[in-house]
Design brief:
Elements lengths: L1 E2 L1 H11 L5 E6 L5 E8 L4 H6 L7 E8 L3 E8 L6 H17 L3 E7 L7 H10 L2
Parallel strand pairs: 1-3, 5-6
Antiparallel strand pairs: 2-3, 2-4, 4-5
Length: about 130
């Protein structure tokens, strides 16, 4: 799967502290991963609110633990179509390779798994 260059550019900007988070998605033809939203709010709740309840997305969030740590969150809610979830799963490794500045990774299927407490704890532990 191709990854749009803006994904890498914006992820580097999150790493540098210019933005707090990114929301990424597949384009309409499911041929490329693209930036859907750049979030400048420091509020983690705003990031979670940008994850749709029934569609897959990837999130890149910049945590400030021992320097800036970028966490790739694979959002694959159970309400999403099965085919969409499978396509997302196969694309994750391509995205991970393209976003070299990612330090941590989390997979979530519901809002409990993407809560600040759960994700930040995994980032602090380095998992």
């Amino acid at each position: 799967m191709d990854v749009d260059e803006q994904c890498m550019v914006k992820a580097d900007e999150v790493k540098a502290g210019k933005h707090r988070y990114l929301i990424l998605k597949l384009n309409d033809r499911s041929t490329e991963i693209v930036v859907e939203k750049v979030g400048d709010s420091g509020d983690y709740d705003a990031f979670v609110a940008d994850l749709p309840a029934s569609e897959c997305r990837w999130g890149v969030y910049g945590f400030d633990f021992q320097g800036r740590r970028l966490c790739l969150i694979t959002w694959s809610p159970e309400e999403a179509y099965f085919k969409e979830r499978m396509v997302q799963a196969t694309c994750r490794s391509d995205l991970r390779r393209a976003l070299w500045s990612i330090t941590d990774e989390v997979q979530a299927i519901d809002y409990d798994e993407v809560s600040y407490e759960v994700v930040s704890q995994k980032v602090r532990r380095g998992r």
